[in-house]
Amino acid sequence: MAKMDTEIQLNQNAHIHADNFRNGTYSPTELLYKTLDYLEKLDTQLNAYISVMHSEATLAAERASSTVDSGEATPLTGIPIAVKDLLNTKDWKTTAASKMLSTYVPVEDSTVVARLKAAGAVIVGKTNLDEFAMGSSNEFSAFGPVKNPWDINRVPGGSSGGSAVTVASRVVPLSIGTDTGGSIRQPAAFCGVLGLKPTYGRVSRFGVVAFASSLDQVGPFARDSYDLANLLQVISGYDPKDSTSSQIPVPNFSSQLMHGLDGLTFGIPTGMLSSGIDPLVRSAFEESIKVLEANGARINRDIRLPSIEAALPVYYLIAPSEASANLARYDGVKYGHSAELGESAEETMFNTRGEGFGPEVKRRILIGTYALSAGYYDAFYLKAQKVRTVIRTEYEQALDKVDAILTPTTPTPAFELGAKLNDPLEMYLNDLYTLPANIAGLPGLSIPGGFVDGLPVGLQIVGRPFSEPTLLRIANAYQTHTDWHNQAPDVSCN
Questions:
Q1: Catalytic residue among 84, 126, 147, 420
Q2: Which of 163, 200, 342, 359 lies 20 to 30 A from 184 at CA?
């Protein structure tokens, strides 16, 4: 246990823990003990974790303590971190929150997990998610729904709900999620933390259970821009194991944090805010714009994205189509769940998929299989890809005029559990502001942007390809003049 238990404050951000390690205030092992104790008590309420890696984390913390003592620590050495249960972890189950993979144990780490371990981070567990990352509420999990720490009767957002919740509730200061159409940014907004979807190709997808391969991207959660930059620094970079990873050099993501807002111009696509948005969310967004403008930013409200209305149907053709292709491998033969043998191979496969996949995954497989079928491929999937190119071009043209585009992260605050389960379209509309960045392959960052009826809402910043340093600069400047990111839920009252 710690020398003085009161010296360890779990609400401290990662860089403060790192300072305390160096100063000898407490060790990574002592921090881990307190983290695991709090996690065990709190997760009975929130269900943010699918599994907790007690023994592995203890060994990692002991190694980190020795590294700190030797003076060779990195910014992540000894820092507790949670990883979405979509990333492979060697010799530890990776379930994708699905019965289909409930017994799957990978033989090697994903590249992101390997880089975290090499940096000395202490992985405490695998977080809950919507099954195969398909969902916007984290209610579609074979392990039960995740609860929002601000109100346990509300959703945390999805699909990376568990990763957002564990950072928001101060269990760990950092976590990893994935974002296919908003699955990092939307839960970040609903839970009041920072969440970044990097540029497509910035972070390796090797060892990540695939949903939609042309859209998926791994990214970080944190409670301030400095920690977010440090975590992104570790996980970024070219990976020869991932043919889609970029060879563009990785910059110092902290290099622009203190540059402020002077000289930056932000675009507001007014047409995107004309309907479907909660008036109080719109009001919070406008207040955020005033903060930015008052501190040196210029605002351009003449940004046009004429094809943006097509983004939702384009996404919900491309993503299910790619999911249909990716999930075809789950046939009950090679690995994963397998039903009892039927009278034929087809019957066994039918039973395996019927038992192994949940309702939302089945829905998306059916949509995707239909869109790819003979006679419909050109009319649906191919046309969606052509419109995707148009949307990407419009973003490129808009970002030639401004440094970043700003919108609310979500049209509403977190909604009640079960409120949209019977209306898939209403659920999908919650991704209205986030999924265009995935379609265009652009980086997008959600930062805490205020509260509506006691629930956090997010401000989304979308930038040019590989402009993550600029997004982090904007986030840091905004957080210098606001206090939303320091607000914490009182989970003891839930």
A1: 84
A2: 359
